[in-house]
Amino acid sequence: MIEHRFVTCGARRVMVRRAGGGPPVLLLHESPVSSAAFVPLIGSLAERFTVIAPDTPGYGGSDPLALHRPQIPDYADALKEVVDALGLERAAVFGRHTGAAIAIEFANLHPERVSGVVLDGCPAFTPEEMEELVASYLPPFRPDWSGSHVAWLWSRIRDQFGFFPWNRQGPASRLAIDMPRPSILNRIATDLLLAGDGYRIAYEAAFRYDGAAAAAAARVPAHYMATETDVLFPHLDRLHSLPDGAQIHRMTDAERATVIGTLMGACAAGLPPAPPAPEETGARRFVQADGASLLVRQWGEDDARPLLLVADLPGSTRGLDPVAAHLARKRRVVAIDPPGHGLSSPAPAGMADGGVELMARALASLGLGQVDVAGINVGACRAARLAARLGADCAHLVLIDPPPDPAALAECLPASALAPVWSGAHLLTAWHLARESLLYRPWFVPTAATRMPVEIGLDVDLLHRRFVDTVIAGEALPRTLRALCGEPWPALLAPLEGRVAVVTGEGMPDAAEQAALAAGASAPVTRAVPDARGYADAIEAATERE
């Protein structure tokens, strides 16, 4: 099992993937991806080692460095903070591309902390190549209302496997390698979306790094490897004046995994087992629940009355900041990224309840006692199921702009709508789904009568965040909708009689239907100004009633 965890490094949080037991090995990923790229490798190495794969600062779930233009030595210093926080005296280190540059620099700066390095594609660019790549390889990434950036993103990722440099499409730059499966391309796209415009930062640092000089100065056992299809395969010939004991390995793609395992075994030989993972604390942390790692966020004081806030679907906890900040003046607000959403890992195979059971177990581990529960829009369906699961531990359930007809939502997306396809059409589907959901209610009925009354749907940054959440949820989203919305409200709310309240935003196109829902459940209904403060005040009022 691969756990997601946060490591606290001063004011920064670093997300790591961790698995296995035995001697510690660190895996450092390339740009612009996260440690998600290493999931297969983590699984294979975890049979013999404690495998720890941190997300580079600014990528995946890790906070960026507080520097304008960090260079590879800055990332190496940041890695030392991670190693210190994990209590590792020494570790074997594997790095790929950008990760290889960070690994060799870390080893050169802190050789006493490294038993050996394996570098898969060590960058050794010439000054001329550095200048060209920094100038043209890393254009800004800006969301656009039209979704044109979505089409650009998919084309850019495909071109990265067709040409090097990707932005110089011509016969001389054509690569003779297989195009990866759409699922792999989609994982890269997802990681770049998480990094946003910051995808360029560590990339640029790697382009500016003199890997050949670093290799010549290596002070620990070092192995330099690359496969024949790696764009950095020719860079192995640029590694001159290597210290005694350094080795170069050229191989085929089929040999790669075996070679990595063998070399990491040699580098980790004699290391003691890694210490247990440190306990997580703070406003953001992961909770382990039956094979899944769920991100939990908190606002407010620990001794305040607790409120579980459930995000709209497919949203994550990061979209709850405005409402939670208002509520946190009086309440301890808790939110959980559902399995497969935000930074939480997917639910184990066979769990088909929309993540309700795992979220309830994660909540129980926090020891909050009795809580109020509030869910936003489609999240209200999940909130109702969670409240029923909590039983007497749920004091009040507040449905905020709940969908009057959950059954229609259960069938609104075909099962394959967001499955990755070679053309990238699934990303455009996700973009327009996110856009319509901010403009119309329900999103799949775009008529004058269903227009949302506020201009929030015209906020491109908000739209882009919702799009990213949709891409992360991906092809599990239709299944989740079916799991959460398959029952009508009377069945969902029957176990909660007397504890339900409904809040509807002023001017919502389905306000009358929401009022009818409230009447059918004998629940009070409150109209609220449709903004963060208005909804927060309405939630607070609804949970103060007897």
The first-level CATH class name of the largest domain: Alpha Beta
Report low-confidence residues grouped into runs of 5 or more: none
What is the fold named in CATH at topology level of the largest domain?
A: Rossmann fold
Give the number of helices.
Answer: 19
State the strand order across the main sheet: 1-2-4-3-5-6-7-8
Outline the biggest β-sheet. 8 strands, mixed
Tell me the name of the CATH homologous superfamily of the largest domain: Alpha/Beta hydrolase fold, catalytic domain
What is the strand tally? 16
CATH architecture of the largest domain: 3-Layer(aba) Sandwich
In which range does the helix fraction lie? 25-40%
What is the 3D form? globular
**Strand percentage:** 15-25%
Spatial extent as radius of gyration: 25 Å
Straight-line distance between termini: 44 Å
Whole-number count of domains: 2
Describe the structure.
Helices cover about 35% and strands about 20% of the residues. The chain has about 550 residues and is of the alpha/beta class. The protein has 2 domains: about 210 residues, Alpha/Beta hydrolase fold, catalytic domain (Rossmann fold), CATH 3.40.50.1820; about 260 residues, 3-Layer(aba) Sandwich (Rossmann fold). An 8-stranded mixed β-sheet has the order 1-2-4-3-5-6-7-8, sandwiched between helices. Strands 9-10-12-11-13-14-15-16 form an 8-stranded mixed β-sheet, with helices on both faces. Strand 1 and strand 2 form a beta hairpin. The longest helix has 16 residues. It is globular, with a radius of gyration of 25 Å. It starts with a strand and ends with a helix. About 50% of the residues are buried. The model has no long low-confidence stretch (mean pLDDT about 95).
